[in-house]
User: Fold this.
Amino acid sequence: MSTKKYLITWVIISIVIGVLSSAVMALPAKWDYKTNSNFLSSKSIYKVLLKNKYSSKIESLSDTKLQILVTKIDELISKYENDRNIDDRKRLKIFSLLHALRDVVNEDWNNQSITQKYVPDTTPDTIEKYELWDGKISSSPKIWYIYSCVTRFGWGGAWKDGDWIDGNYWYPSKKTVHVDGNVSWDGEISFTLQWDKRVISWNWVPEDHNTWVFPVSRNDDAYNYDRNPNSIDDYKIYYSLPANPKIAWSASCVWMWTIWISTTWVALFNGLDAVWRDAVAHEIQDNCEGHPERDGVYHYHNIWSCLEDSVEDTTNGSAKLVWYALDGFGIYWNQEDGKNLTNDDLDECHGHSHTISWDGTDKKIYHYHATANYPYMVWCFKWTPVK
Assistant:
């Protein structure tokens, strides 16, 4: 890569740092940046933004240019750390950006760190692990990516990663922290076929299991990682879905709120948290993998543990129907013909077509499947969703 291209790349990154730093919200005046929650949260957000936009440019740099880049970043970190003429608020903004950029460079350079020697994952292969897909959104249907209607993300989600996240992977069996408590709900839901419509009425809360206590208490272990301030609310809502949806000429994007309705009374969101990250890996939910968002809607992001024991294969080797997407198509369990399905078995919207049991009859129709890894459910809608 020419020196000219390297300098252009560095100028672009410098501009990004300048623009992003002006957008950071006000931060506390006194802080220890290595443990400060605002620093960690800001760094996490900037890391996703930088990685999503500039990782390809960074990957194209030679080893020598990468070393120069990281050395320059470290010089800037050292400069601002020791410069007492800059107030603490401004220094924290700069630190969060520089450390985020440094992490992106280290991760994208063949998974190695220049200033800190990369330590390979030594967790035994017998422990289940999944790759982190933070920031994997697209502007069109694309396998392994969520085709998101939202392209400007805000603040929220977990502010600190737990030890179940290691580099580019996370380990479900190590994620033992859950929100405490035990709250029962009187969930109500009905599904009615009315001509060509499937009318659904329900009150947003589960009937088949309890939830834990939200907002997350300061005394809860989960508070050390995820300080969800939202409460669970119940109120009536109605949907009228197409009973026999068709595949559209082009797929539709998915939004950040309810996009599936569970046959067990709970809403499902896509696999992202509020800042483009894998919500299941980063956020802390209750023991049934659920939590509320800001409007009080209790929801899941993935296959939840409280449902697993009740799901069995049905006719034609197809898994049990457990959700309806808001475009009308069904979402089935992740097992089919005795096989655990993966993303590689499904199309760009996370589904396929074959004969399944649909409203009591065998019918060849398109349908989605859940999977155990990101993005878990639906990547895009095959038919126009209702709102």
